[in-house]
Amino acid sequence: MFLAGAKNLEAKKEWINELNVFPVPDGDTGTNMTLTIMSAASEVGALENPDMETLAKAISSGSLRGARGNSGVILSQLLRGFTRGVRKLTDLDAPAIAAAMERGVETAYKAVMKPKEGTILTVARAAADKAIELADGAEDLNSFFDGIFQHAEETLARTPEMLPVLKEAGVVDSGGQGLLEVFRGAIDGYHGKEVDYSQFEASAAPKITKISPQAEADIKFGYCTEFIILLEKTLPQEEIARFREFLDSIGDSIVLVADDEIVKVHVHTNHPGQAFERALTYGQLSRMKIDNMREEHQEKLIKDAEKLAREQAEKEKEPPKDYGFISVSVGEGLSGIFRELGVDYLIEGGQTMNPSTEDMLNAIDKVNAKTIYIFPNNKNIILAANQARDLTEDKEIIVVPTKTIPQGISAMISFVPEKGGEENLASMTDAISRVKTGQVTYAVRDTRIDDKEIHEGDIMGIGDAGILAVGRERLQVAEEMVAEMIDEESEIISVYYGEDVSEEDAEALSDALTEKYPECEVELNQGGQPIYYYLISVE
After folding, report:
1. Greatest CA span in the chain, whole angstroms?
2. Which of 73, 76, 273, 465 gives 383 a disulfide partner, CB atoms 3.0 to 4.6 angstroms apart?
3. pTM for this structure?
4. Whose CA is closest to 125, among 112, 108, 141, 138?
5. How far apart are CA 144 and CA 136, in angstroms?
């Protein structure tokens, strides 16, 4: 049921992405939820004959570490709570499932600082409430599941009445829709709908602690075999096809190129001699080469293990510093700014790809410091950072709730080494509260939001609280957006231009803002970010 739910969500991810309220080219709810559940599905797919506890652990661990974005983190918490409710059981009946669903909802609500109704949380809670209501009187699981699904579907349909922004955009909540697709797939799985388990193979991410005999055995054909046949006579196409079929019967990864005089052959096989014998019936052999791929694979594992051991030893040898910094960033220019400010480790990501909890944990492992500050720089990444913090035991992790890259830059600037961790967090939080951020991008569909009519291809200026300007020209929209952000206390306007903006156009915007706001200092920086033509902050 779990794998069927994962598969159905994955199949619907692009449609779910399109339900995002803002018509920006990086709508990613479906992608984030899919990557989260597929991380768990990979762990489940690697299990052989699991019991309930092993299965529950794989679902919980995989989803927690793979969680991306707010919707992905909430989904991981729903799964975490549910699996905690069932891990000690051997059979699941309606009351047990209902209790586990309720526990999942409680866990998810606790993970969100300010739960908002009309979202995935609302749909999850409605489903759990209905499960509790139906559990005791359920005659069978068919009617039980159908009743839960129908109520969840009706609740999702009402989300626009709970969140005006959904109603204005004419969509239901995308996270709630994603959860409904998990339910739909799981029920299909319960009814025996076939699931392709091959797509849930274990992740190939290297986690090398010793050489695994199984990893070597996974190489089906062990010898990379290459040679050239010097033909005695030109081979007809039918014979070339028969030779290819023969090679295919003893190996794979076949490359066969023939002309009138020679045939170039490449094949992975366990029987190089058989390939040579057949080839000798056509002519002499030249440039014969056989490589043992299992031996190469083993050498790579040894080198990787040795490298990992060296890095670990160096890390243990060097005493940890007091403070370290991790920041999410995208774009060469913006990443360069963070490096100059002293950030130790940059995680590539942001609007176009939210980093996972696993990405955060890997970064934490790389920074040798007692206290580490994390700057998520996106409201959709904060929960994943918090989850990584909660999973880290050997270091103090402080998540600074930066929602934009300019906020992250201001927070980093405000750090004072002499202050304590919480004291610095307070001053950083104060600094980011004074930063207003606007982002200029384009619309990917027609919609109406914040009382503004938006058409596909329009340029939009998006502020901290919504759409500030809409038009057809980047310069015009950027100026109108800044005009909405400026007030009498504003002192600095920082402009970061993206990879699709020329330096000339960026300077034209900078000059226009300097002329219009002579009381403000205008700073122009090459950001190099994708999707967003300009990131502009006002402080």
Report:
1. 89
2. 73
3. 0.69
4. 108
5. 10
DSSP secondary structure letter of residue 536: E
* Per-residue model confidence as pLDDT tens digits over 349-383: 766 578 889 999 999 999 999 999 999 999 889 99
Residues pairing with 459 in the sheet? 442, 471
From first CA to last CA, the distance across the chain in angstroms is 51
- Three-state SS for 488-526 is CCCCEEEEEECCCCCHHHHHHHHHHHHHHCCCCEEEEEE
Half-sphere exposure of 16 (CA within 13 A, CB side): 26
What's the token pair of residue 326?
């991790």
Number of other residues whose CB lies within 10 A of the CB of residue 531: 18
Mean pLDDT of 61-73: 87
Q: Can you tell me the distance from the alpha carbon of 269 to that of 8, in angstroms, rounded to the nearest whole number?
A: 37
Query: At 322, is the secondary structure helix, strand, or coil?
Result: strand
Strand partners, 492: 521
pLDDT on residue 422: 86
Residue 314, CA atoms < 13 Å, CB-side half-sphere: 8
Q: What would the pLDDT profile of 276-318 be if each residue is shown by its tens digit?
A: 999 999 999 988 888 887 666 666 666 766 776 666 666 656 7
| Tokens found for residue 383 | 């929960």
What region, left, alpha or beta, does residue 263 occupy, with left being phi > 0 and alpha being psi -120 to 50 degrees? beta
Q: Where do the H-state alpha helices sit in 48-173?
A: 52-66, 69-86, 94-111, 120-135, 141-162, 164-169
Per residue in 482-507, pLDDT (tens digit) is: 999 999 899 999 999 999 999 999 99
Contact criterion met (CB below 8 Å) for 439 and 534: yes
Element (H, E) at 227: strand 223-231
